[in-house]
Amino acid sequence: MVGAFIIYGNYLKAIHQYDPAKLVYGIDGGNASASLFVTVPNQEVVASAILTIVVFALGDEDNAPPGAGLGALVIGFVVTAIGMGLGWISGYAINPAR
Q1: 83-89: long-range contacts at Cβ-Cβ below 8 A with a sequence spacing of 24 or more?
Q2: CA 81 to chain centre
Q3: pLDDT over 70 for what percent of the chain?
Q4: At residue 3, does pLDDT exceed 70?
Q5: Does an H or E element contain 52, and which?
Q6: 84-92 — which CB contacts under 8 Å span 24+ positions?
Q7: pLDDT reading at 45 higher than 70
Q8: pLDDT, average across residues 29-43
């Protein structure tokens, strides 16, 4: 909660400049700042599923795993790809434990 208030306070001036009427829904294409604070849960589910599938595929001995020490490199590449592709929406929320 404290982090959310700090971020809100940091961007308060820009939010009021973008949406001076404090609209929840935009009217006729108007600016509405409520959509700035929404994450997309579907993207988080897809990103977490991709990461989980890759980790399980790398751990499967019948699936021709990569050479010694390359599993961590592959997972690093996958996490980077997920972050570049889907991370901008939800802030890299790819934790399968959620």
Answers
A1: 86/43, 86/46, 86/47, 87/47, 89/39, 89/40, 89/43
A2: 12
A3: 73
A4: yes
A5: helix 41-59
A6: 86/43, 86/46, 86/47, 87/47, 89/39, 89/40, 89/43, 90/39, 90/40, 90/41, 90/43, 90/44, 90/47, 91/39
A7: yes
A8: 66
